[in-house]
Design goal:
Number of helices: 8
Order of helices and strands: EHHEEHHEEHEHHEEHEE
Strand order of the largest sheet: 4-5-3-2-1-6-7-8-10-9
CATH topology of the largest domain: Heat Shock Protein 90
Helix content: 25-40%
Number of strands: 10
Length: about 270
């Protein structure tokens, strides 16, 4: 893939969600065409960073943000929280155990940052291909939101934003099935869920018509139920997607953009 592919994932810092992060990394690696060795290093490093957020960032639970972007030469990663920060860890001789050294060994470049107001950000860079690493500065991953009102529509247990749309299918499919599996969905329902998410992603990508679009989705899971909100979409795309859904889809109109709201259940 010649253009940059980027995924932003926001979710609570729970041990269960580390497995969901791994699912997103796997889907991202597939669509970005990463080789198996790099994909494995990326998945392990991000899992370690996410696990450190779970174990050390908060007294209870807070938000974890994971950003992954790749172009033909490199992959850049940020794993961030708003918790205690990394400096207390240093004073207690790496309370994170083997996490920091392992992360540093897996990446071609690593930075461990802590803000004055609290919170830690792990920034990682990986080179692609067989050549020697030529890594400049790791980018500033402060995520800009073009429309705060639009971004607020993507609320749920976890939210994901993806650029460009061809990456949507792998990430949405893997993450939604992982959530469904956590809530003990039946195997036949998981198969239907895969067909449904693949269909949604293909329709959105086709209607993007080659434009470099960003699309997001939010997932909320509970016993035998997943709630999905996806967008922003133009009205024609939202209406077309709604026709594919059997379980009372709702198209939410926000300004000149639409969001598709779907509830997927697992009947027993």
């Amino acid at each position: 893939m010649n253009e940059q592919t980027k995924v932003l994932l926001e979710l609570p810092s729970t041990a269960t969600n580390v497995a969901l992060v791994r699912s997103v990394v796997t889907g991202f690696s597939e669509v970005a065409g990463l080789d198996p060795e790099l994909s494995d290093r990326l998945r392990t490093a991000i899992s370690e960073a996410a696990n450190n957020v779970v174990l050390h960032a908060y007294d209870d639970t807070g938000e974890m943000r994971v950003v992954i972007a790749t172009d033909p030469e490199r992959v850049d990663v940020s794993v961030a929280d708003d918790g205690h920060g990394i400096r207390p860890v240093v004073r207690t001789k790496d309370r994170m155990g083997l996490g920091l050294p392992m992360i540093g060994a897996l990446a071609d470049k690593a930075e461990f940052l802590s803000s004055d107001s609290g919170g830690t950000e792990v920034r990682l860079a990986f080179t692609r291909g067989d050549g020697p690493p030529h890594l400049g500065e790791i980018p500033d991953w402060a995520v800009s939101v073009d429309d705060p009102e639009t971004d607020a529509q993507l609320s749920g247990d976890m939210a994901v934003r993806i650029t460009p749309t061809p990456a949507l299918g792998r990430v949405l499919g893997r993450l939604s099935r992982a959530v469904a599996a956590q809530y003990h969905f039946r195997v036949d329902t998981l198969a239907k869920l895969r067909k449904f998410t693949d269909s949604l992603a293909a329709e959105i990508d086709a209607r993007a018509a080659g434009r470099r679009a960003t699309v997001g989705f939010a997932l909320t899971g509970s016993e035998r139920r997943i709630e999905l909100r996806i967008g922003p979409l133009d009205q024609a795309t939202a209406d077309a997607l709604a026709l594919r859904v059997a379980e009372n889809p709702e198209v939410e109109h926000i300004g000149d953009q639409d969001y598709l709201h779907v509830v997927i259940t697992d009947p027993r």
